[in-house]
Amino acid sequence: MSIYLRAVLLGLATGGRSTVGITALALTAPRTGSWLGNRWLTRAAGLASAGELAGDKLPKAPSRLAPPGLVSRLAFGVIGGMLLARRYRASTSTMVLAALLTVAAAVAGALLGGRWRSLVARRLGTDLPGALLEDAGWLAVARYAVTAR
User: Fold this and answer.
1) pTM: predicted TM-score of the whole model, two decimal places
2) N or C: which end of the chain has fewer CB within 10 A?
């Protein structure tokens, strides 16, 4: 799979849940010779994702499209895209393009996720089933982005 497709998939997942892209990269990083594979960093990333997944279900959770939520998705998108390109020893120009693709896809993922949740809430009267399905989907997309051949 091309680095660019990986970047788009990672960006979509990051748009849905801001921390899952970085967490997928950390969990699949080599345990030796990689600072990203450090067990403490891996644990911290996992805890951050678990907290985000749980916090997202709270009634007072802010919109992912509000500035703080969207900015965090863009920031994690840039970081994720650059780390992804670095993992594959990409050139500087490829790294920059991967980061830009990840950021653009993060915006798309945020919009798609928000619309999905609204649709489920209108149909079922609650968005919890949609939120849980969305979590599973974004986690799967992030994992695929970093592990597919």
Assistant:
1) 0.92
2) C
